[in-house]
Amino acid sequence: xxxxxxxxxxxxxxxxxxxxxxxxxxxxxxxxxxxxxxxxxxxxxxxxxxxxxxxxxxxxxxxxxxxxxxxxxxxxxxxxxxxxxxxxxxxxxxxxxxxxxxxxxxxxxxxxxxxxxxxxxxxxxxxxxxxxxxxxxxxxxxxxxxxxxxxxxxxxxxxxxxxxxxxxxxxxxxxxxxxxxxxxxxxxxxxxxxxxxxxxxxxxxxxxxxxxxxxxxxxxxxxxxxxxxxxxxxxxxxxxxxxxxxxxxxxxxxxxxxxxxxxxxxxxxxxxxxxxxxxxxxxxxxxxxxxxxxxxxxxxxxxxxxxxxxxxxxxxxxxxxxxxxxxxxxxxxxxxxxxxxxxxxxxxxxxxxxxxxxxxxxxxx
Length: 365
Prior knowledge:
The protein is an alpha/beta fold. It is built from 13 helices and 10 strands.
């Protein structure tokens, strides 16, 4: 049996029946500049045997390293077997973008894990989900940590910010495809970027309202597309003045309503400009150098937060930059809970396909 297939089978077994005998500890990850250390969760089989190492990045989520789906993933990964480090990026749990600070934490986490005696020599694999995917790609090329990286995985990630935002406002992507998008991403971008726009007056109140909306949805585990959030939307818009209400309704209309397209397209351009000026690492792909380590890109076919077409765009941009690029598309995993409604036969077929996708990931080990 080929080793990648063995790892894939162990991962699948660990996903469906999470192991209960893993060792888990909270460690302190040094921060540069005299800052407080970052906390991280280290998970793996008990004992001191050197095993493959993985640094896994959560996305922009209030639950951070305690997110249930992430916990299930890292337990399955540890069962392959491996030692898995999940740093807490506190800024991301506050729904702040902070890509420069995230890079400091990711690079330090790579060094800490790669230098442990219970981790195999030859570097660790860096895996980033969602917003963390491009940040994993950037960290894999850094002077500080790149030599300790043996592979990088970006799962559910994007190639370009503005086309992703276009989808999140309009549901449009690819060759005329149209879905009902998950608005969570545009709420987070609005919280971070609206106060930086010019020509719109004071939008701090709108940004704060979007932050509260995204935080509540994340804390409660509510699909951001559902009518359950409409009462909160009404409460949050009440204290806003008329121009602010117009912007709020563009980002957070009642469930089932789409933002007015022309206004949305204008806002997407404004957000793109603000993001490039204030958070240049949000759109890092064009500036990446050639990769010396393997790159794997995975995505959910039914993803309604970041569409699968961004996997295709990301692969097209990275292909000239690496000699070892492999991709995988699955119908089993996506950002939002509403997708992946497969019947038993389709799920069985998709499970076999997903094993092949996992083999592409584990051939980096």
